[in-house]
Each structure stands twice: as structure tokens, then as C-alpha cells.
Amino acid sequence: MIVDICMLFIKNRIINVIPLGGGHINETYLIETEDGRYICQRISRDMDTAKLEHNYSLYSKACSESDLAYPALLKTDEGDFFALDPDGGSWRVYPMIEGDILNTSPISEEELRECGMGLARLHGMLSSVAEKPQANYPHLHDLKHYYDIYRRSLESTDLSEENRDRDLEELIEEKYAAMPYYMAEPRWVIHGDTKLANILFEKERVKGFIDFDTIMMGSVAEDVADCIRSACLRDGVLDERGAAHLTEGYLCAARPDMAEEVRELLPAALSKICFELGLRYYTDAVSKSEIFTEKYPGYRIVNAKNLIALQNCKVL
User: Fold this and answer.
1) pLDDT tens across 245-290, in order?
2) Do residues 31 and 10 make contact, with C-beta atoms less than 8 angstroms apart?
3) Predicted pLDDT at 163
4) What is the Cα–Cα distance from 286 to 274, expressed in whole angstroms?
5) DSSP letters along 290-308, please?
6) Dihedral Cα 20, 198, 276, 182, nearest 10 deg
7) 56/263 Cα distance (integer angstroms)
8) Were both Cys, which of 14, 43, 66, 250 would link to 90 (CB 3.0–4.6 Å)?
9) Beta-strand (E) ranges in the chain?
């Protein structure tokens, strides 16, 4: 079926189909053909392809006018960006962007600084988008939303009682009460998922970004914070020196108004981003929802504790 779907977008002979793991949302394959390599994805049924197409029309125009690479979607012979399979699933195809992903540690100080500079370039490019994107994940980075889910999970009959940690739950309540989850007016178009796996490097410079499905209106400080969480946090310990290098790179390349927002809000944004993800890990562990992979027994609980315990992070 995958080959049949791909042939709606590309006409060259397909040599190989390789499943790519690591994503929580989409089903992704590397397609090798006689003339090059492509990415083929089955979109999560939770996503609205009409919103995806609207957003693509916005960020693809902005990206094409910059030097940042991005997933440039192919069209079928009928002129569609998405094709349906017999089960009603939606698929898309785009040429593979050759580049390096810095998903292993340690990352050098220069690479971290370049991450920040690349993110500033992305934000500057997205500031030219003429319309507001339509969020496919309207509650992304909405801490109150995830807290409400957490509270409901504790009241559910499908509760994994053996995974509960009462001390951690007490800490959650204490930190949530003091958390500034309304960070700033969502006045910027942001990527929404700036983890290292979505940043492509070439010759030690950011080449481009992938996975724009989370594009939304939000705070640039939260995009920077999420990048720091991904790049500078290992086993519950924040590399403050590395975070400072990433932040420095962003501030030296960002628009003055964006830099001002990051200077003002980044420490609180990082605490919020880490707390939010930790809350989601803990909710997953006690509710048996299994959104996150349990890489080893207790993995989600360990991650939750590490993320929720972070405080007073020095990043500037």
C-alpha cells in the first residue's frame, strides 16, 4: 500500500521502503528511488488536513523566501497535497532534506549557539506570515489544559494506583499554584516543537527545520525554552552553561522585540515547559494512557520527577 501511495506523488521506480521510528504522532517512511530519497508520512487521524494545508500555504511561502530548508510537500496528479488510503488515512510525501540532526550529547557550545541563532532566523522568517495559523493542537503549551487532564486522571476508575507518588503529587500542586502559565499574549507565529530532532544542520550551521505541524500563535520565549529543554537537559540536570550559549545565540540574531520578550520571560518559560512535560509524563504513568514509550520500568515516573523538580534555572 505504501508504494501505491507514493506512486501518486512520485513517478520514479521505488527501490526501498524503510520505516522510520522515533515519532509519537505520524507513521513515517524513508522512500528510496532512482532519482533521490523522499519522506512518506501517514498523518495522525487527530490532525485536520485542511488546517495543515492552510498552514502550509503560510509557512512555505515564508520559507521559500528565506534560506531555511523546510519540508516542501509534493502534489498528486490531481493537485492534492494529501492522498487517502483504503482505510481513510491521509498521506503526504516530500523530498528528504539531507542534513544532520544533533540528537546525541554532548553538543558543543558553538553548536548550541548556532541552535539559538537558527531559531532566531526561523522566528524572523515566520514574522512575515500574513495570516494566523490554524492550530492543529489548540492546547499545546496550555498548562491549565494538561493540569485538568491530570486531575481527572486521579479521579478515574482506570487509575494505575501502583504508579502513584504522593510526594510528587504534593509538589505538583505546590508548583502549579505558583506557575505563571499565562506567559504572554500569543502575538508571534512560532514552530511549537523546537526539539533537536526537528532542527537540521549542515557544516555546523542550521540548515532548516522540519515538522511544522505544531505551528501556532504563541510566545517566542516558549520556543526557545523548549529548544533548551531538548538540547541542554540530561538526566534531570540542566546544563546552564550550554543553555546560556543557546540563549546568547538567539539574542544576538533575533529581532529586538523578540529578544526583549525572551530576556523577560525565558526563565519562567523554561520552568513552565519542563513542568508541563513532567506533568504529562506523570499523567501518562498513572492513567495507563501510554502516550509516551516506557523505555524501561519506571521511565515515565523518573522523567516526571526530574522535570517537575527543576527550578530557578539560570539561562541568561
Assistant:
1) 999 999 999 999 999 999 999 999 999 999 999 999 999 999 978 7
2) yes
3) 87
4) 19
5) --S--SSTTHHHHHHHHHH
6) -150
7) 30
8) 43
9) 14-20, 27-33, 36-42, 83-84, 90-95, 188-190, 199-202, 205-209, 216-218, 233-234, 237-238
